[in-house]
Amino acid sequence: MGKYSNPNKIPPKNKPPTEYKSIVLPNLSKFSKEISLLINAPLAQTPQLRKESQFNLKKLHHDKNRFLYKLFYKDATITQQTWDWMVKWKIVDVALVAKWRKQGYENLCCLACIGSEGGKICICRVPLSVRKDLNEEGQADPCDKCACLGCSSGDLSDAESDQ
Questions:
Q1: 56-105 pLDDT per residue, tens
Q2: Which residues contact 15 (CB under 8 A, 6 or more apart)?
Q3: What does the pLDDT look like over 109-156, one tens digit per residue?
Q4: Rounded to whole angstroms, how far apart are CA atoms 54 and 151?
């Protein structure tokens, strides 16, 4: 997350656009509070619980950026000026949003899952119809990087991925 990823910490001399305050900030404040609670929570005693809190933090980061992406690209609720201002102050993860705009990455969970580790791809990027690691109930095991169950473009429709 960027230097100014907390929407309440923007320097006052760089006033945000009006629609940022009325449309975006109330929702971003909710994300900020949830992120702060996770960050300030006592450190979990077991590695499994620590990993779970990291997964929750990554999910909140994804949800916040998906919310902003939908406001600008899907709903056209905010203007280019407001979007540029949020990019300038690193409120939005530009790299993740840029991937969502590319074909095949519309449902991408995080950038770590497309990073190249010895030419391997993350298990969550493999379509569920092709995966062989499904359990008895037909559910997939989550990936080790962000606990995603599947973010391949063929797995979900646009309506399901935006929920």
A1: 999 999 999 999 999 999 999 999 999 999 999 999 999 999 999 999 89
A2: none
A3: 999 888 766 777 788 888 888 887 777 777 788 888 898 988 988 765
A4: 18
* Per-domain boundaries in the chain: 1-101, 105-163
Supply the pLDDT for residue 157.
Answer: 47
Burial 51-85 (b: 16+ CB within 10 A, else e): eeeebbbbbbbbebbbbbbebbeeeeebeeebbeb
pTM: 0.81
Q: Buried (b) or exposed (e) across 122-135, using 16+ Cβ within 10 A?
A: bbbbbebeeeeeee
Provide the token pair at 48.
């499994």
Structure tokens at 44: 């979990």
